[in-house]
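FAQ: What does a multi-protein file look like?

Like this. Sequence, then tokens, then the next protein.
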Amino acid sequence: MEWLEKFNKVFESKVRLGIMSVLVVNDAVSFNELKELLQLTDGNLASHLKALEETEYVRFEKQFNGRKPLTTYKATETGQKAFTDHLQVLENMIRQNM
């Protein structure tokens, strides 16, 4: 099937799908906000974010909010395009199987 060849394996994980869903509709989201929204542990979220960083789909910025460190994440242009393309593949797959 042609659509299967375009399926992005990076987004097979529902956690990564969730992360990208949040990041493409927000300018930037903190680690703690992502953790709370997606109801994940620190380690689980961190491992999925690292995988998305390695594909250059997300990037992070570290700064300080007073004395507290604050890490925020953003979807890159590459990540936004990959996610949008992946959603299109899913939509096409659903339409073909209706």
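And here is the next protein:
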Amino acid sequence: MLYMIQGEDAPDSLDARLAARPEHVTRLQALRDDGRLVLAGPFPAIDSDEPGPAGFTGSLIVAEFPSLEAAREWADADPYVAAGVYTVVDVRPFKKVF
């Protein structure tokens, strides 16, 4: 089943986000390589693909996991969580219609 993982960034966490990004991306690439990743990306803090120092307000990941518990465990192990980038992580089942 598909699950939505939405992380909300802490204020002024851009430096921590950039430092943890390589490990974060490696995990996403593993999901992609397994054919389980539907989409992933950040929410720019301003209306721009490259927000510069304005940074990001969070991220969205939609991927396949065997259960809600597995999706939560994967999300809890994200390097952005360990680095304090995400203050809140929401994990929910997701039904792709289109």
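Q: Is there any per-entry metadata?
A: Some entries carry free-text notes. For the entry above: The helical segments are 14-33, 68-76, 79-82.
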